[in-house]
Amino acid sequence: MKISIIGAGYAGLSSALLLSRHHVNRITVYDRFDRVQTIGAGILIQPSAIEILKRLGLYEQLIDRGEKVYHLEGINHRRRQVFLTSYDDYSPNSFGIGIHRSLLFQSLYDKCKIQSNITFELSREITSLADLQLTNDLVIIASGSHSKLRDQVPIKQTYQPYPYGCLWTTIEDNEISRHRLCQYLRYSQEMFGILPSGLNHNSKRIVSVFWSLPTRLKATYSLENVLERMKYYLDDTHSDFFEKLKRANYSFAVYGDVYMQRYDHENLVFIGDAAHAMSPQLGQGANMALIDSYFLDKSLREHNDDVRIALQMYTHVRRRHLRFYSQASKFLTPLYQSDRQIYGRFRDLLFTISKQIKFSRRMSSEILCGKRISWIRNKEIQY
Asked: Which ranges carry the FAD-binding domain (predicted)?
């Protein structure tokens, strides 16, 4: 089967790697940049995606360079713990893996490069799907949340930019936030996150730092004011870490929400953020991309005589899981990023109560793990 993949991100590369295992497939990966790379800070790989990494043969490499994360903790501006979500509430010995996004990317890319049936076409921006659709058995669009290629298919869809983005940087530090993702919160107007992100290329432990910021302030914010607010949340034992924050270089990231009524059209399929970008609040972007690639490969194997049926089955299989996380994202994001103080007050009250209830703790951990598919039924994704 002749396959074209547009976009060399997590979704595109993991799909290429899985599909290359069927040696009759000839795969071309297109990317608009002259060299394949990723930009950004750390990510948290969830148990839902760890299973895919094991199937890809990448787990050992990532666990060696990453840092196990056992808890997600939220502390408000009054120094009170608002929530503590533990992977143990889902399953004993469960954990996430905090890594820098470049490690996952490079691991996927290096493995793709040694596959004889994968070819890369760089500096090739695909602006029209028509020609590829005619000359390929399958076209996979994995070109990210801002992809203009969605406009070329007759599928009901929406794209909504988020009013909040974030400042981010990475810091070398051996002590802070070990084995837990910490979020410091003032209602829904301030969020300061510290994510353990494994080892960098110098084998130094790093953490990723995030500061929530309205996009309307992108050009006018004061870094000095942001640093003062960061300092407020750090106690005196972290004075060295604050000095590193002062010396760091910061970038600004923006996000958007993508909805597609279905993900397939004829022999085209949209995966990853190109199909269902969500707020980063749940931290599921890379995880969903890996899961997409697994189920796309599975559908094609089960219906290898008819690509269109396989893609329809893929949409059917992924819809419920993705719909749940889209709903969760829309509900939870304003509780953390909003101009309305009342949302943050509601979150603090709700989570303070729910963390004391075993069922609520279990459900929160299932959502964090990336496996839940229903608000009511206790059901999770099956591989």
From this structure: 3-79, 132-320
DSSP state of 236: G
pLDDT given at position 15:
98
- CATH number of the domain enclosing 329: 3.50.50.60
Give the pLDDT band (50/70/90) at residue 40: confident
No. of helices (H) and no. of strands (E), the chain: 12, 18
Distance CA 46, CA 365 (A): 11
Q: How confident is the model at residue 37 (pLDDT cuts 50, 70, 90)?
A: confident
Q: Which domain holds residue 22?
A: 2-161+255-369
What pLDDT, on a 0 to 100 scale, did the predictor assign at position 237? 87
Query: Residue 238 gets which letter from DSSP?
Result: G
Whether residue 152 is contained in a domain is answered as yes
Model confidence over 57-105: pLDDT tens digits? 999 999 999 999 999 999 999 999 999 999 999 999 999 999 999 999 9
Both tokens of 352, joined, read 């303070």
3-state secondary structure of 179: coil
Query: Tokens for 157?
Result: 């869809």
Query: How would you list the strands of the sheet with 118-121, edge to edge?
Result: 118-121, 26-30, 2-6, 138-141, 268-270, 264-265
Q: Total structural domains in the chain?
A: 1
E strands present in 187-294: 190-199, 205-214, 251-253, 256-260, 264-265, 268-270
Q: Could you tell me the CA-to-CA distances from 91 to 86, 197, 324 in Å, in that order? A: 9, 22, 21
* Residue 38, domain member (yes or no): yes
Q: Do the domain assignments include residue 137?
A: yes
φ, ψ at 292 (rounded to 5°):
-55, -50
Closest to 83 in 3D by CA, of 189, 207, 184, 232 = 184
Does the pTM of the predicted model rise above 0.70?
yes
Tokens 């979500």 belong to which residue?
85
